[in-house]
Amino acid sequence: MPNRLLWILLLGAGLAGCGDNQTIVPERDPYQSPGQEPLACLPDLDGRLDADELQTAFAVPVRYLVSPAGETRAVDVVGEVDPAGRRVWDWGADYASDQLAVVEVRELQGQWYAASFPGGQFVLPFDAGGRIESVHSRDEQGVYLHGLASAEQHPPEGQTLLPYQTPIQVNRFPLAPGDAWLSVGVVQNGVFRDLPFSSRDTYEFEVDGAGELALPDVTFTQALRVRTRTTIEPLVGQSTSQRQVSFFFECFGEVARATSQTDEPEEDFQTALEVRRLGLLP
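Now predict its structure.
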């Protein structure tokens, strides 16, 4: 009897639970996806590079695959025309000997040579090894080179300090096919590896093509080809020249370059002293 009574009481309690649910369930807001920050720069693929598509970003590492010092490399700066009539450069080959260079833009302030470059704003490695640095500034009309200096004040090979009397324009905005200009920089009372040095440096620039550039890790659909020929006329000694073919893309800046051997006569040189490509080593 007691067990039967207990069963009836439990059954009654269970049946009571089958009535109206008196539990209050709170309303919940639907999940909100976190907001996406807009990109600082978005390519519009209009065939030119505007000032706002080449911003100066400090302390942002950019990685390049670079051919080793002393190793020349075959290079195709001409490219081919595909069936659609578009010029294509295939620079996507994998080279086991490639090395990684990490480039960062840094403030000029605080560098040992800062006082020698009034008007300079930022610093970039001039060579892949970062032993020589180039000093730059920029405005809405372009990017300017103020000169070169050794990264260390007293490196083993000797100090280099080569400020131009007047900064030279090395990039202009907007940058588009058909652009061409010449800049001349004069170094007086400079120092090259602890030796007195003066020179007249002539830079010839030409934007003469656009098309698709294939690199090992990324393909740029509308890259600009920029040719540069630099002639150095020192106060003492013979003048020398060197050619460079660079590729620029909106928001990325320079994504690849090939530098010729000294005194290269051919505009479309086929052997490069250095090849540099945006990419990552495996």
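The chain is about 5% helix and 45% strand.
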